[in-house]
Amino acid sequence: MDRNPGAAEHPAADPDTTDPGATEPGPAADLDTPGSDTPDPDAAGRGTPVGRRVILGMLALGAGGMAAAPWLQRRLEKFLAVAAENDPIGVTGLLPNGGGFRYYSVTSSVPHKNAENYRLTVGGLVDKPTGYRLVDLRALPQHRIVHDVQCVTGWRVPQTSFEGVRLATLLDAAGVRPGAGAVRFTCFDGAYSESLTLEQARRDDVLVALRMRDEPLGHSHGGPVRLYVAPMYFYKSAKWLSGIEVTHEVQPGYWEDRGYDVDAWVGKSNGRDDAATT
């Protein structure tokens, strides 16, 4: 799952656990958790954990998936995504998944949104606060990025495509006011948040994503809309995105309050890598 706010893949969410070599967290964040990509250390005891037979079955499936065809990998990921919604303590995120997404959760449940009830707000230090429906976002110019998804816990999903609206497009439409220096993101799981500097937010490889792997973004991966920050660890790619707020300065997000780096460039611990994504 993106470990992102809520439940999920962390990336998120989008939706990552702590990595001693790079102090980051996990979605919106694929620490595809709702809003984030990282398991919640405080989540123990919320709800009923998945059963022993299910865990053993997933272990067998995960091991088999290591050498499975891509179509089987996708089916395994969908199975794990459903199981993760009934796994409040994050056990499914620890299971082998043959190079696919892991699914975690930072809340016990996340509401499902669709074209009828989804709204994304853009506000804060802007001249024109705006609200977007799914149809509005789909009508804007769409951009596609193919890049490896990297979780701070070490797992990676290579050459993953995301499509959506460049965040810079929404910021330009809203009219960022002088004195603004950062952008804060909130998620409809009610818990996850993330931030970028304004300079980072305007990069061409930062998207408000609507599609992933050439399909509409599903709920378990942070859909219908998530943030995607290609050059950073996946916990920055908040899942279940609901709000974009322009602020004076960066405000630490969900995992950063728990010890992760605010600047989460992939490879930072081995020499910063923030080159433009191709």
UniProtKB/TrEMBL annotation:
Span of domain Oxidoreductase molybdopterin-binding: 109-255
Region (Disordered): 1-49
UniProt-listed InterPro entries: OxRdtase_Mopterin-bd_dom, OxRdtase_Mopterin-bd_sf
Domain of life: Bacteria
Region forming the signal peptide: none
Protein name: Molybdopterin-dependent oxidoreductase
Lineage: Bacteria, Bacillati, Actinomycetota, Actinomycetes, Kitasatosporales
